[in-house]
Amino acid sequence: MELREFAEQVLKSPSCMQKIQPVREQLTDQAPGMAEKLTLPAREEKLTFGARRTAPPMPAIPRFSEPAQRAIAHHIMANHELQALEVMAWVLLAFPEAPTEFRLGLAEVMKDEQRHTRMHMERCKALGIEFGSLPVNSYIWRQAMTFTSVMDYLAGLPLTFEGCNLDHSLELEDVFQSVGDLKSAAIMRRIHEDEIEHVRFGLEWLRRLKPPTMTDWEAYETHLHFPMRPSKSVGHQLDEASRYKTGMDEEFVSRLKATHTGSIRK
């Protein structure tokens, strides 16, 4: 299957199940085609982006003892993973001139996003809520519409959104464990491990594409568009060890710590 066909399947198919259908055949990039920048992903009616304040917020931690509230949490995270998948497909269509090695690597990350979406959907259903029965927001997608280059994507999605999930995945693992939901906790641990590799991928390509005179941090900060900013890449508790596992150097981690007002997990 050509990368373009894969990207179009994810971005232009309204069916969520088609978007997250595993790719069995080998992906190639022999016909990337012309640049195409869609303003919205195709989505079935129940998953169409709603008004900003209609989607439910992440439940307060004390309410995670209730199965229905844990289901809401998984519903929210399934939509986050689905948006990330759609943004990655958008990048493949928007920047066909990007290096083939990057594009093929991004497709491998997309396969993880498909799996993450499925995991959250299945857990959401097991806890009593069908994915799509609640309104969903478009926050990640809207921020991605400010990307004008692959470098913007690297700074915005892998290094900021997925960077933040290095922390949130661990925080939610702890919360799920505290209420005895070991299946949900295991999902968050698996996603955390994948996020380390996703951030590593983003950092590797930032280094390969940035001007040699720029530091990693300078390149990262330069390619963030307001309201995106470095502090958005950190959760409530910054997990320092995870950042070093991604390959971040001491300067990058120190700069992140300087933007963070919460606690630090060593």
How many β-strand stretches? 2
The low-confidence parts are none
Number of alpha- plus pi-helical segments: 10
Radius of gyration: 18 Å
- How far the N terminus sits from the C terminus, by CA atoms, comes to 43 Å
Organism: Planctopirus limnophila (strain ATCC 43296 / DSM 3776 / IFAM 1008 / Mu 290)
Pfam family, one: DUF455
Protein name: DUF455 domain-containing protein
InterPro entries: DUF455, Ferritin-like, Ferritin-like_SF
Written account of the structure:
By secondary structure, the chain is mainly α. It folds into two domains: 1-23 and 65-144; 146-266, no CATH class. The chain has helices at residues 3-12, 16-19, 67-94, 100-126, 139-144, 150-178, 182-209, 216-222, 240-245, 250-259, and strands at 237-239, 263-265. The chain has a two-stranded parallel sheet. The radius of gyration is 18 Å and the shape is globular.
Summary of the model, kept short:
The chain is mainly alpha-helical and 266 residues long. The protein contains ten helices and two strands.
Task: Summarize the SSE layout with pairings.
Layout: H1 3-12, H2 16-19, H3 67-94, H4 100-126, H5 139-144, H6 150-178, H7 182-209, H8 216-222, E1 237-239, H9 240-245, H10 250-259, E2 263-265
Parallel strand pairs: 1-2
Helix pairs in contact: 1-3, 3-4, 4-7, 6-7
